[in-house]
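Next up, a specimen:

>
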Amino acid sequence: MDIEITSYAVIGFIGAAIAVLVAWLAWLRRETPGGKALSVLLMAAAIWAFGSAMEHATLGIPGQIIWSKFEYLGSESCPVLLLIFALEYNNMRRWLTRRNVALLFIIPLIVFLLALTNEWHHLIWTSFTPSPAGENLTIYGHGPAFWIGATGYSYLVMLIGTLLLVRGALGLPDAYRMQVIMILTATLMPWIVNAIYIAGFSSIPGLEPTPFVVIFSGSLFAWAIYRFRLLDLVPIARHMLIETMNEGMLVLDQQNRIVDTNPAAKKLLGSRVDIKIGKSVAEIFQPWPELKTIFHDDNPQQRSEFTFGDARGGFIEISLAPVVDWRGQLAGQFVTLRDITDKRHIQYELESANENLRVKLAEVESLQTTLNERAIRDSLTGLYNRRYLDETLERELFRAQREEYDISLLMIDIDHFKHLNDTYGHKAGDRFLKFVASFLEERVRQGDIVCRYGGEEFLIIMPTVHQADAQKRAEMLCNQFSQSSLKYEPTEHMPEGQMPTGHMNVELHLTISIGVATYPKDGLSADEITVAADKAMYEAKQAGRNTVRVR
């Protein structure tokens, strides 16, 4: 096989080299959608260009036929690879199953086999005539398999791939749209030139210029990769973003008619509505009248979010956003529907849990308060107990020392209380202790502290009260108590055989003896002042009871 390097051969070799270089650049980005398919597509174009270069460099028709058969390996693969690239670039990979890819390559494989065996049937080429233009050019006569398989099928597949790229470009931002324009230009130019050749309009008989345009196409792809970041800023196709999103979507025009939607919207709204393109949004949301007004232009809450219960008892959140055209004018609205049922149920559960927790905390606080009260209160009379008295008296004396004022103590003892217990029983004694406690609490100042000191003894702490005033108040208490009595029915509580005859109801009447001591006159410490008040109280008892004595 003799070789002669012609100008057409040189152009073909350059085109093949450029295609290989760009294929390598695309292969470096093979993980990006479309990267691997574009790399293989350019390698197929390189095979086509290299075969064409060798065909033009080979002397003699038999050798040229061999290289023409080799070219079919690339030329028949390019349309299918273009379609695969378009599907990947638009993120429609679900169509690229092994079965579908194998089906796409069946006809190209048959055409390639027919080209290899053309001498037996002449279905691809029917004749070979040297071109009058020279330069090792040959005019090929084509058979039916060429027109059906090599031309018809290839152009059909290429058309589908091109339409997919155009479809993807229509809804893309400018950064992505320029990518598709570059891809379309680089893809269409070889096929436009090929169509001119097949139609017989080539100015040079026998010259198939398609592989030469690979130089132009490869340069455009290289420019797109580096200038417009092709395979770096690959767009997410609409069906990936909209069709497969979990959120429902409605696109409304200026008349609030639906111009686009997705399956999630139909699923979220359920069978109660029939979502159709061109339908008014008011019809869609007819089951929920409270939502119709949110789509009005005069609604101040147009950009707010709303929730409503759906047919299944769940909740859907509706968000509105404006859609503006290229002039910045309002063209419609974008409505997003999001299922927030789980979120709302979790919110309710949290609120319920928080409410239960608040109730429990209130119960604990109440119980703690009760326990604290029980710790400082006498269980029978409800007055402060001895423990509280010891803590409080020390604190009050410290404050009185700091602020320099007097504190008076009244030690009170019930006269003849043992006789009452022996006569009417301990139940009567308990009732009388409660009666005394109420009597004292009702007659002291707000700042005074009444304590049960022990048994039938009580102690009153009177801050800021001088001894003379304390004596007057003690005498008043003693006098008033001597005039009071407690009505009591002893039948249920007296020991058997002790109830006096004819005493179904009795009046319990006793007196009290009070001892008065004052800080700092009668002592400086709690013990000293308490002992002083106790001694004064015993002096009152020794003086005949029902009286007051001052220490």
